[in-house]
Structures are given as C-alpha cells and as structure tokens.
Input
Amino acid sequence: MAEDPTRVLVTNLAAFSPAQTIELVGRAGVAKGNTRPDKVFLSGVSAGCLLSFAGAAVLSCNASPWYAENAPGLLRLIEAIIFPIGFVMVTLTGADLFTGSTLYTTVAVLQRRLPFWKMAVHWFLSFWGNLAGSLFSAIIIFGYGGVFSASPFKEAAIAFAIKKQVAPAWHEIFLRGVGCNWLVCLACLLSLQARGVGSKMAAMWWPIFALVALGLDHVVANMFFIPISIFLGAPGITTGLYIWKGLIPVLLGNIVGGVLMVGVYYWYMYLFGQPEVVIDGAGQHGAAVRQSVGDSTIDVEKNGGIHQ
Output
C-alpha cells in the first residue's frame, strides 16, 4: 500500500528537525546580511525600543521594597516571567537584535553563503541601531516621560543598575554575557524550529526566562538599564564606567556565547560535512524536488512555489 502523503504533511507541521532548523538559521543570516544598510539600522532601532519596554516592566516589578529585601528570588522569578515579552516582540516583528545577529550571520558565513565583511556590517549597524533605540526609550520615553521619577520606582531603577554595574568584577560581567547570549541564541534557534506563532512564543520564552532568573547580562538590555539610572542620578555610575563595565565585557561575552556556543556548535553538529538539507521538499540551491500528492505530481521549488 502506498504511503499516505497526508501523514507526512501533518508530521511536517509539528516542528523542523535540528538540521533543518540550523539550515533555516543560515538562510535567515543570508537574508539579514544582504538587507539594505538603512533598513538594518532602523530595524535595530526598533529592536532597542521594543526590548526597552520589557526592561521598563522589569524595573517596575523591582519597585517592591519588602519583596526585594525578604523574597528576592520570588521577585526575580516574576521578572523572568515578564521580560521575554520583549524578545517575543522583537522576533515576531522581524527586528534586528545584535545578539541574534551573532548567530544568524555566523552560520551564513560558515556555510560560505555570506562574506565576512557583510556579517561585520550587519553587526555594526544592528549594534548602533539597538543603542539608538534604547537611548531614545530610556531618555525620551521613560526619562523625560517621568515614568521612574517618583519613589519607589526611581530607587528601584538605581538599585538595579548598581547591582549590575558597580558590584560585579569585569570578568564576572564578561562570563555572564557568555551565558546570556548562549540562551538568547538558543531562543532564536528554537523559535525557528517551531512553525506556529504560539509555538514560537513558547519556544523562545523559556531560555529568556532562564537568563533573567539567573541574572545574566545582555548588552542591549543594559543599553536601557544603565542609561536610565544615569539619567535618574545613580551615584557612582558614569558614562565611562558604563562603557568599561557595562558595554565592553557584555559585548564581548555576548559575541562568544552567540558565535561559539550556538552558531559554530550547531553548524558543526548538523551541517558540516553533511549533504544539503531539504526543507519542505526544497533545497537552498536549486533543483525542484518532485513529490506526489494524491493523483498529482508537483514541483516544489526553493522559493516555495508549487507548480502542477
């Protein structure tokens, strides 16, 4: 008896395999690396703004002095539940977050589908776009908007920044950055593995939940947390200190976490030395794949077109 094609199609709706997922990561990296520079920058601005909304919600949660003193673990758990909404908004709107770019474009370069210089340009533009969007939100929307001007919100925002910026050593912040983008890029990968919007949201939620619950450092999130505290007059935090301890070590750590721990690892495990990965009957490069559906034979091309 011939195999029922309906069963294959339903199975394919569940999720992509790990090999298909990292292949999709590479294809996304090619698309991102070849996007017009102005669009990459504006997309980065959007991502910085969207993530800042989630960061502001986290700071609002911190404005609970009793819980901060007596149940800090519970407070961090609540923050971890809330913060992933920022990544959901960024991912579902297709905005460019620098930390995610370290995964997508790295895989595309490893596949030799994207030149290194285009990856570097995408990193540069997305980073500065993220910074511009985060600063706009921190200073204009939440700063001059007076969102954290009143007590206890002002004290909560300042205390949060001091814990992140002043207390830890440089190497501790770097290592937290490694772990952070390891989880962020895993969230990016899992969101591509899922097919439905609800599944994508659930898939990316839990790695982001973990990084917040663990207190890890994300370079773009810090672009909001630290500048808003400086705006509010946090003692001991200056722009120079932020660059030295809140930007450089987190940036380097995020690059290591995204490039090595996720991009290079999954490329090596599932793509290096392997035949071309076929997704929904289509390869990246070429020839249409013949499939039989019922009594008809169709050509499924790489661009998704179906021709009888």
About this structure: Strands lie at 289-293, 296-300, 306-307. The chain is about 70% helix and 5% strand.
